[in-house]
Design goal:
The complex is a heterotrimer of chains A (about 60), B (about 350) and C (about 220). Chain A is about 85% helix and about 0% strand. By secondary structure, chain A is mostly helical. Chain B has about 350 residues and is of the alpha+beta class. Chain B has 2 domains: about 110 residues, Immunoglobulins (Immunoglobulin-like), CATH 2.60.40; about 180 residues. In chain B, about 45% of the residues lie in helices and about 15% in strands. Chain B has 6 helices and 9 strands; from the N terminus they run H-E-E-E-E-E-E-E-E-E-H-H-H-H-H. In chain B, the strands form 2 sheets. Chain B has a 5-stranded mixed sheet, with no helix packed on it. In chain B, strands 1-3-7-6 form a 4-stranded antiparallel sheet, with no helix packed on it. The longest helix of chain B is centred in the last third of the chain and has 35 residues. The two termini of chain B are about 30 Å apart. Chain C has about 220 residues and is an all-alpha fold. In chain C, helix 2 runs parallel beside helix 5, helix 3 runs parallel beside helix 6 and helix 6 packs antiparallel against helix 7. Chain C is globular. The chains are: A mainly alpha (about 60), B alpha+beta (about 350), C mainly alpha (about 220). Chains in contact: A-B, B-C. At the A-B interface, helix 2 and helix 3 of A face helix 1 and helix 6 of B.
């Protein structure tokens, strides 16, 4: 009985949406950002490498 | 740091915006459960509803209506148990339009946070009763304008089957838009090659087709993951799913042709012709045919997608930048591949 | 150019008539398939009749067009093709394949009727479907076979390339077949007929534009 009342209090304590109240949505967003940053870093390194080779070819 | 073109910066700036907005904006109010499903005329019907992101206890001015077409009838009483649970008491004096016996009613609620709509909420049982009894009911069907307050917060709409997965719209649908754009650019390059016979155009066409196919495969995979959670299985043989798979297979043939020819000129010519052929086939396959069949995809089975039914205004401000960001991403990756290809060809 | 088409077509038909090589080999294939099916299934319910028919049709189509083209890869025939407009080559081949496929399709339906049954209820729809689908298949597969002839690795390429391209025709055609068997009630079947007609016209228009570019060699 005590458990039930505690549970209902915990779940609807915050007056924002459900997923944010469990805190898990921030994890998902962070993971997505990390993945995107990894892709971006890879693309930028590729750009740098391609640019250097192109400059070498041009200078020859 | 590398010096990048201006359009690449647009991608770098838009993508975090899309990811953050896509995940962190809360969903609007909705109703996840409603029982019982059938309401009877001339009886006291008690509908128990379970809401999502609702705050029934805040503010007492909550009203509810059952609506069919232009007619609506208001609830006699609303009993609120906690923030998400409530019971609505309705008495209904028969069908609103006595010429039609279609019993599908929608539920519309007015809360301080804004309106709450559940389409096709209940079914009105077609029970015969003598006309004299109709006068007993306290409520009458009316056609006045429903007085609902506007949505006060910024949130994404809550749609019944989708729920929170509506956020996937920002990550799945732009993949397809980017794929169409990449294929279109490759067709332009192929046509250019067939007119001017410069081998760089063929290399560009090939890179764009490759990245387009990559985005297409990603779109299919993300789509089937989404389908698993909303439609129940990974592959529902939905028309659009089938057509997308067929289009990817047709473009696979492009690479098979390129692999089996050795002479670069013949390779470019034949694959260019096939590219145009495949693209012109793709347009009716993906756009026109799914519209004529009933489909699970929102926006098909009669209505075009991106209408006001499927894409709320709040979603548009994240969706359109997402489409632009994905398109730029696709072009960037394809351009990089083309440049690397040129480097390797030059070395040889 | 029409005269060229007719001339090439007549040449193909005449060589076929004298030397019935292609049609007899495919007819033999067909007969042995139906025999295998008879031994394996003994009875074909009308539930699966349409599926069996379509399997046989696809197999027939791919094999016919592969055979009918591989015979031509000899210098003698190639010489004729350099004299004429590329489109007349294509159209003569397409019409020739169409005639071949129609004959073989009729043979397939008759053989299925001989060994099993023909549960077709709506004959006009069935015949229109067969004709439209055969013409679409013939147009598409002739185009693909001419592409793959350029590469020299013909049979494998033909099969791989033609399978996804045949899917739309297959989907609409088998749906119409089921409707003509009255297995599904679809009062709006006309959109399938229209879509096959559209595929025919799109392929026709595309090849008129693209084929001469492909053929310049």
């Amino acid at each position: 009985m005590i458990l039930l009342s505690k549970l209902s209090a915990v779940i609807w304590m915050l007056d924002v949406d459900f997923l944010r109240s469990t805190g898990k949505i921030y994890t998902v967003a962070l993971v997505a950002l990390v993945v995107w940053i990894a892709v971006l870093v890879y693309l930028l390194r590729l750009e740098k490498w391609v640019k250097s080779i192109e400059d070498q070819i041009k200078s020859k | 740091m590398v010096k990048l073109s201006w359009w690449k910066w647009i991608f770098i700036l838009l993508m975090p915006y899309v990811i953050l907005m896509g995940f962190l904006v809360p969903l609007g109010q909705g109703i996840t459960e409603l029982s019982p499903y059938v309401v009877y005329p001339l009886k006291t019907n008690k509908l128990d509803i379970v809401g999502y992101n609702t705050r029934f206890t805040e503010g007492q001015s909550i009203r509810a209506w059952l609506k069919q077409g232009d007619y609506h009838i208001e609830a006699d009483n609303i009993i609120v148990r906690d923030e998400r649970h409530a019971s609505l008491i309705f008495t209904i004096p028969g069908f609103p339009d006595t010429s039609k016996n279609d019993g599908d009613l929608s539920l519309v609620m007015d809360t301080p946070d804004g309106p709450l709509v559940l389409p096709s909420a209940v079914n009105l049982a077609a029970v015969k009763y003598p006309d004299s009894l109709a006068l007993i009911s306290s409520q009458k069907w009316s056609t006045n304008k429903l007085a609902v307050r506007a949505e006060s917060n910024f949130n994404f709409p809550f749609r019944n089957i989708l729920g929170e997965t509506i956020r996937n719209t920002y990550f799945h649908v732009p993949l397809w838009f980017a794929m169409i754009l990449l294929f279109f650019i490759s067709v332009l390059k192929s046509i250019r090659y067939l007119q001017k016979k410069q081998i760089e155009d063929d290399a560009k066409a090939e890179s764009f087709v490759l990245i387009g196919v990559l985005f297409g495969i990603l779109g299919t995979v993300t789509g089937s993951i989404w389908a698993k959670f909303t439609w129940g299985s990974f592959w529902s043989f939905d028309v659009k799913q089938n057509m997308a798979a067929i289009s990817l297979l047709i473009y696979g043939g492009y690479f098979i042709i390129r692999n089996s020819l050795q002479d670069p000129d013949a390779k470019a010519r034949v694959s260019g012709v096939y590219n145009v052929f495949a693209f012109v086939l793709l347009i009716p396959l993906i756009f026109i045919i799914p519209r004529r069949y009933d489909s699970l995809h929102p926006g098909n089975g009669g209505n075009p997608a991106l209408g006001s039914q499927d894409l709320d205004n709040t979603m548009r401000i994240v969706f359109y930048p997402a489409v632009i960001a994905y398109m730029i991403c696709g072009i960037w990756i394809a351009q990089l591949r083309y440049r690397i290809k040129l480097i390797y060809n030059n070395i040889y | 150019m029409v005269r060229e088409i007719l001339g090439l077509l007549l040449k193909d038909v005449k060589t076929e008539w004298r030397n019935k090589q292609a049609i007899s080999s495919i007819a033999l294939y067909l007969f042995s398939i139906i025999l295998v099916l008879y031994y394996a299934l003994v009875r074909i319910d009308r539930m699966i009749w349409s599926g069996v028919l379509w399997l046989v049709l696809i197999f027939l189509a791919i094999n016919t067009i592969t055979v009918s083209f591989s015979r031509d890869v000899k210098h003698r025939h190639w010489y004729f093709y350099t004299l004429t407009h590329p489109l007349s080559v294509y159209f003569s081949k397409a019409v020739y394949n169409l005639i071949l496929l129609l004959v073989l399709d009729t043979l397939a339906v008759l053989l299925l009727g001989l060994f099993f049954n023909i549960p077709v209820v709506d004959w006009p729809l069935f015949l229109i479907t067969m004709f439209l689908c055969t013409s679409a298949i013939s147009l598409i597969l002739t185009f693909v076979s001419l592409i793959s002839a350029k590469t020299g690795d013909q049979p494998v390429l033909m099969t791989i390339l033609s399978t996804p391209l045949l899917f739309p025709v297959l989907m609409s055609g088998s749906r119409l077949c089921l409707v003509s068997l009255r297995l599904i009630q679809d009062s709006n079947y006309f959109k399938d007929v229209l879509s096959i007609l559209a595929i025919n016209m799109i392929t026709f228009a595309l090849t008129v534009f693209l084929f001469p570019i492909l053929w310049r060699d």
